[in-house]
Amino acid sequence: MIIYNVTSIIEENIQQEYLEYMYNIHIPEVLSTGKFSDAKLFLLTEPQNEGITYCAQYFAKSKEDLVYYRAHYSPKLQADIKQKFGNSLLSFRSVLELTQATI
């Protein structure tokens, strides 16, 4: 399993609008690509940063699904969210892979 993690630091004054946008528009659009099986949105509580930090995690079955998503869908969806919130939002992306190790 691959987790595509998008961490966003937002200004406090857009928090409600950001949450509504993520739940009603952005996350459904990402899932509608068919490249992810699930998504979760987390509020980062520690460490505290300036602003409010959220982590959106999208769960893909394979690296190939993520590569396809990034090549064909991600640029437009990133542009849409940047257009919506401008400089009130700063995002960075990371990728996690579930290990098969037995503990």
The share of residues in helices is: 25-40%
Q: Name the beta content range.
A: 25-35%
Q: Whole-number average pLDDT?
A: 95
Reported CATH architecture: 2-Layer Sandwich
> For this structure, what is the CATH class?
Alpha Beta
Task: List the quaternary state of the chains.
Answer: single chain
The best one-word shape is globular
The major pleated sheet works out as: 4 strands, antiparallel
Measured between the Cα atoms of the first and last residue, the distance is 17 Å
Number of alpha- plus pi-helical segments: 3
Number of strands: 4
Low-confidence stretches: none
Question: What topology, given as strand order, has the largest sheet?
Answer: 2-3-1-4
How many domains would you count in the coordinates? 1
Pfam family, one: DUF4286
Protein name: DUF4286 family protein
InterPro entries: DUF4286
